[in-house]
Amino acid sequence: MDDKALQQVREDPQSFQQRIREMVEASFGLRIWVGLVQAVERRIGESLNLKPSFSASIDWDQASEDLQNALGNVWDARTERILGEIETDLQNAVRENSTLEAQDRIRFLVQMSYGQRSFFDRKTHQRQSVKVARLSYPFYAANLISDRDPDELTDQVVRHLDGAQESLKKLLGNAAFSRLAGSKLDQLESRTQNQLRTALGQEAFDQYAGQGPLSSLPDDVRESVSNILGSQALARAQRELFLSVGDREWVDYLTQMEALRTSIGLEAYGQRDPLVQYKSRAFDLFNVLLDSIRAGVVAHMFRLRTTPSSSTAAKQAPSPRQPAADKDKPDSTAKKSGKRRKRKRKR
Fold first, then answer.
1. Beta partners for 114?
2. Do the domain assignments include residue 334?
3. What is the pLDDT of residues 65-101, one digit of tens each?
4. pTM of the entire predicted model
5. Rounded Cα–Cα distance for residues 304 and 323 (Å)
6. Radius of gyration (Cα) for the chain, nearest Å?
7. Residues 36, 152: one domain?
8. Are 114 and 106 within 8 A, CB to CB?
9. Distances from the Cα of 90 to the Cαs of 76, 80, 83, 116, 258, in angstroms?
10. Are 30 and 58 in contact (CB under 8 A)?
């Protein structure tokens, strides 16, 4: 501070205190404003081009209006860019496929939600491209179901999941049946044969077991075989999903328990029994583990994908043995060795 400022402090200390208060408020307000802008930019993934230019206290009404205007400009620019990209992709897809079927339209709708974004990597000094989501549906879906009854919505979701599982089982069963169409019933796995005996009956199973390949069986028998193969493939995929989610969450749980074991001794500084606190927090972490496993399984169940496995394949037929040598046919090596012995005797 210069001499003039010091003189003002001596003459009017109250005004100086008011000035200091305004400077502190402006500093805190500027920090809050900068943090808010940065949080919004991280959320939308783009820059708002809002520079902090407040030298005094912030007019929050004007700041709110500026923020909304900047968001509107970014949103309009993004909407125009995304619509242009989608239009270009659809034109290219239609140009490549002259006839569009229902599956093609569904594939286009899925591909329409994702796109490529290019950026300059400062570390490698190269232009990189990443796959980004163009469209996000959770907020729109939340608005659609905001007025729905929770119990009714839950029943509808469960019915949808059951229908999806049934369709997936049918597809897996048809794929497995196509692979095994040339095999016979008695060449399938023992578990599959037991289930077929239960579904068809022992007498019917014995009747169809030796008739021929699966493709030559009656329609009802082929449908039973396809359903059983599909159920096995779906159960295997669900089991792998449960194990995968449980394994990942269990590792996280063990990591948290190790951190708790290391830091639980600090509870003694707060006049709390470390053993009691350890038991309580470990119980809470275990409940969180169970909830995480349930949530992970449910979340991945709607996106369950599986590939045909070789476990449903028919038993490998034994490789044909080489035909045994004819005992009546003289061996050429024996002839040669006999001739050599005769020559030695003559000598």
1. 133
2. no
3. 888 999 999 989 888 888 888 888 888 877 777 677 7
4. 0.54
5. 50
6. 37
7. no
8. no
9. 21, 15, 10, 15, 52
10. yes
